[in-house]
Each structure stands twice: as structure tokens, then as C-alpha cells.
Specification:
Helix content is 95%, strand content 0%. It is an all-alpha fold. The chain starts with a helix and ends with a helix.
Length: 43
């Protein structure tokens, strides 16, 4: 029983970390797009 609980908790933690990584990658791509659009507009 406790083993299943530990597995469930670790799975939730992995999913949370995965979603955090995904969101941070999305923010990075957004920043890159913004910087590119700013460069093109300034040119």
C-alpha cells in the first residue's frame, strides 16, 4: 500500500516537473520570437 502511494507521489512529482519544463521552454521560444520580431522591426 505504501509502495503504491510512493509511486503515485513520484509520478505526480515527475508530471509537475515535466509541466514546469514545458512551460519554461514555451517562455524561451516566446522570448526568442519577440527578440527576432523586434530586430526585424528595427531594421
Amino acid at each position: 500500500m505504501s509502495l503504491q502511494g510512493d509511486t503515485f507521489v513520484s509520478t505526480c512529482r515527475d508530471l509537475h516537473l515535466y509541466s514546469l519544463i514545458q512551460s519554461s521552454q514555451q517562455v524561451e521560444t516566446l522570448n526568442i520570437r519577440l527578440s527576432i520580431s523586434q530586430k526585424t522591426s528595427s531594421n
